[in-house]
Amino acid sequence: MALDIKICGLKTPDAIAAALTGGASHVGFIFFGKSPRNVDPETAGRLRTAAQGRAKAVAVTVDADDAALDRIIAAMRPDMLQLHGRETPERTAELKARYGLPVIKAFSVHDATDLAAIMPYRGVADRLLFDAKPPKGSDLPGGNGVSFDWRALAALDGDVDYMLSGGLNAGNIAEALKATNAPGIDISSGVEVAPGEKDVRLIAEFFQAVRAATNTMSGAA
Ligand SMILES: O=C(O)c1ccccc1N[C@@H]1O[C@H](COP(=O)(O)O)[C@@H](O)[C@H]1O
């Protein structure tokens, strides 16, 4: 099965073009005021048109209320919603029904005990996303550029569809894929030169590293 690759926190046409040229399956837009990657829904709506028919456009929100989500959905027309806050299984189901969109639910992981949290979301969220816990003092629930111990995911059932995120970059993606065999990966800080500032060269290098890693893994199989 092809590896899904999401480049998240996009804010400029150049960065989106680099993500699409590299072969991103998903492009993510952040709607969270405290993030250096925050975009307004209208800007995201303009930017996401480049991805039409090429990659799924994902709206990333954090405990957003209905009014904020209504505005995001109307202006951006995302293909998917990513819930990166403390949204309950009930809220997740409600949003799926309200907008008729597939939902990615994010979980923060330190060790295998954190995986118990996913149980009530199985059959509710369409896909799970595993990110590291935010460092102490961080204002952001994600996008902190920190990894967790990927061995924690060894306890997952084989049928769990998820994306691995948190501190991925061109230098560690081979090890991350080898450790997890993740069906999808998600990166933001690792292709930036400063918080919120994507770099087209780093994006291209990330895709090269992913291709090299997947070629090595399929050769070894
Ligand atoms: O990137 C952000 O600023 C952000 C803000 C609020 C919620 C989620 C956010 N990003 C998510 O974090 C991971 C990527 O993090 P990293 O920078 O690669 O470590 C990814 O799931 C983004 O969607």
TrEMBL record:
Q: Which Enzyme Commission numbers does its entry carry?
A: 5.3.1.24
List the catalysed reactions: N-(5-phospho-beta-D-ribosyl)anthranilate = 1-(2-carboxyphenylamino)-1-deoxy-D-ribulose 5-phosphate
Pathway, per Swiss-Prot/TrEMBL?
Answer: Amino-acid biosynthesis; L-tryptophan biosynthesis; L-tryptophan from chorismate: step 3/5
**Listed GO MF terms:** phosphoribosylanthranilate isomerase activity
* Pfam family, any one: PRAI
Against InterPro entries, the record matches this protein to: Aldolase_TIM, PRAI_dom, RibuloseP-bd_barrel, TrpF_fam
Identify which top EC class this enzyme belongs to: isomerase
Domain N-(5'phosphoribosyl) anthranilate isomerase (PRAI), by residue range, is 5-209
Its family? Belongs to the TrpF family.
The record's annotation in HAMAP family points to: PRAI
What name does this protein carry? N-(5'-phosphoribosyl)anthranilate isomerase
Q: What is the lineage of its organism?
A: Bacteria, Pseudomonadati, Pseudomonadota, Alphaproteobacteria, Hyphomicrobiales
